Structure to design on (601 residues):
């Protein structure tokens, strides 16, 4: 199975031509009174602009590793480099002001207004008031909260999801190149979490930060990560892109951790836009040619509504379901199962048909578009 | 002579004693609270690591020691404490203020320690993660968040002090105690009951004034985001 995957799956480009923003060299943490290292001899490099997900079971050292990057936890041995500069021994408080930090419970200051919460780091860095105010408004916009409504509120007047958005805005305030996130969406309900994750990716497309992100949720790691670092009791077991982790686990631990369903999870990594789809015709004349091309009836605005002709299938008895091309194969499968259809029309933003994906393609191997991988 | 006649003919003395009572409590609780809050802030620390010796151990030791000591002070009968200080500070205002100050320590210190240690850990962790130094965290995050609890301690200690200040009259301390002691020692004589009644009622007036004062202070000093 993994052999076919090699040729057909789109791997997000990673590391090429970019320098490493965060480098851990032989980093080790032994807590006082303990003989077993919490993190031992860790080498990890995070390329600029990447989201790296640190994942593993409880007590595996993922959070310790994260907190050693901004020295909330001081490493016992090893070196930490930030953008090529050794920060192992610089002033910790000064260092942390240059690194965004988001935690699970938000940790907003309850006695500060939302704008003041966002402005804490700029204020410590000595920005003037007007600039801090403008920055807070800008960030409220970025995280999708209306500044005039929210800037003067207090944290307790916000929902958990809104608080977490402010947490992200606060971490971004002084525009740090690096962000550390410690299970930021862990305490949020699943529906809100999903939306926050989407928004987070959207924001990351704009800001392009280098991000280390601790999670215990594999789904989240696969969805958000450019790379995933799997930890077990203080050791890094595998560090690779999500597809590799899922399809070629380095050892038994990783394969156990990834567990069953890896093949299905992988589907969410494959974007429809990158696939070679079967052609679809909406032209009336094409209906007569019957040359093995699916033909769909379209409504006035060009949206497909039903099948006119399907090669080797009963067009009238097959419901026409659609999936946006911005989605993943996972979404396409979901739509097919939901509509009891053996194929799905992939549509663009305007709803016009771009191609067809067959159920059989999933089993037979997905083909990526030439020159697009 | 009815009570109103008594009040009007002694109004000047009553007013003077009430003011003195108010001031002696204000000074003693003010000084005591200042000492307790500064001490509480100074010894506030994270949980000391059981496996490693550090300054946190000293801070914790001083904190627990101070709490035990001030609690012990609070259990000494007030009459005795006033008497014990006589050889050192003599009769009068000084002894009254010193003793009241000592009594006010425990409640404020206890509430300061409780208020500082119960601040949400997530808030403190994010402050640290954003680059707050220890001192900045203590003064701009912990203290404001602990303030409602501390203020409550000061309020309670003020009420206790109003009644303990009465006993100060045995060492010729200022305040309404003079009326009470006088009235009790002459009980049965003319106006003696009126004196006791007046001493009691005007203690309540002093308490009411303090309550109004604290309501205003609370309104002005508790940040809007954590006001209940």
């Amino acid at each position: 199975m993994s052999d076919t995957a090699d040729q057909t799956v789109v791997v997000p480009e990673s590391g090429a031509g970019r320098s490493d923003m965060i480098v851990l060299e032989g980093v080790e943490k032994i807590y006082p009174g303990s003989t077993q290292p919490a993190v031992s001899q860790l080498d990890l490099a995070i390329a600029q602009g990447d989201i790296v997900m640190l994942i593993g079971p409880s007590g595996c050292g993922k959070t310790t590793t994260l907190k050693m990057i901004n020295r909330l936890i001081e490493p016992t041995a090893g070196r930490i480099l930030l953008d090529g500069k050794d920060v192992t021994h610089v002033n910790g408080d000064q260092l942390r002001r240059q690194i965004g930090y988001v935690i699970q419970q938000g940790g907003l200051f309850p006695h500060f207004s939302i704008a003041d919460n966002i402005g804490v780091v700029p204020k410590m860095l000595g920005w003037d008031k007007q600039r801090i105010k403008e920055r807070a408004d800008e960030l409220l916009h970025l995280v999708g909260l209306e500044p005039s409504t929210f800037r003067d509120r207090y944290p307790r007047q916000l929902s958990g999801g809104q608080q977490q958005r402010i947490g992200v805005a606060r971490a971004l305030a002084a525009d740090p190149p690096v962000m550390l996130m410690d299970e930021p969406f862990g305490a949020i309900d699943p529906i809100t979490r999903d939306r926050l994750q989407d928004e987070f990716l959207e924001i990351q497309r704009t800001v392009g930060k280098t991000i280390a992100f601790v999670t215990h949720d594999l789904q989240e790691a696969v969805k958000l990560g450019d790379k995933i670092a799997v930890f077990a009791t203080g050791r890094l077991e595998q560090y690779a892109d999500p597809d590799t982790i899922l399809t070629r686990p380095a050892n038994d631990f990783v394969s156990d951790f990834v567990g069953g369903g890896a093949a299905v999870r992988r589907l969410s990594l494959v974007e429809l836009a990158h696939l070679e789809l079967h052609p679809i015709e909406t032209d009336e004349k094409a209906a007569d040619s019957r040359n093995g091309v699916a033909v769909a009836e379209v409504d006035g605005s060009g949206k497909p509504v039903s099948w006119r002709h399907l090669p080797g299938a009963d067009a009238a008895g097959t419901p026409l379901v659609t999936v946006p091309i911005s989605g993943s194969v996972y979404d396409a499968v979901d739509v097919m199962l939901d509509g009891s259809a053996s194929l799905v029309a992939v549509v663009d933003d305007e709803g016009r048909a771009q191609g067809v994906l067959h159920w059989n393609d999933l089993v037979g191997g997905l083909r990526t578009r030439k020159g697009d991988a | 002579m009815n009570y109103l006649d008594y009040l009007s003919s002694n109004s000047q003395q009553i007013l003077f004693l009430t003011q003195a009572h108010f001031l002696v409590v204000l000074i003693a609780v003010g000084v005591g609270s200042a000492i307790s809050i500064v001490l509480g802030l100074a010894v506030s620390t994270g949980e000391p690591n059981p496996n490693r010796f550090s300054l946190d151990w000293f801070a914790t030791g001083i904190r627990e020691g101070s709490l035990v000591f001030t609690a012990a002070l609070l259990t000494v009968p007030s009459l005795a404490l006033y008497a014990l200080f006589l050889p050192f500070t003599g009769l009068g205002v000084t002894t009254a203020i010193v003793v009241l100050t000592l009594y006010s320590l425990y409640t404020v210190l206890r509430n300061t320690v409780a208020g500082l240690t119960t601040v949400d850990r997530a808030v403190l962790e994010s402050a640290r993660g954003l680059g707050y130094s220890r001192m900045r965290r203590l003064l701009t995050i912990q203290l404001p968040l602990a303030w409602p609890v501390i203020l409550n301690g000061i309020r309670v200690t003020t009420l206790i002090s109003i009644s303990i200040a009465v006993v100060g009259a045995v060492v010729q301390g200022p305040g309404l105690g003079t009326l009470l002691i006088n009235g009790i020692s002459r009980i049965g004589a003319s106006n003696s009951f009126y004196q006791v009644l007046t001493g009691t009622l005007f203690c309540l007036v002093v308490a009411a004034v303090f309550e109004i004062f604290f309501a205003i202070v609370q309104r002005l000093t508790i940040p809007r985001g954590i006001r209940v």
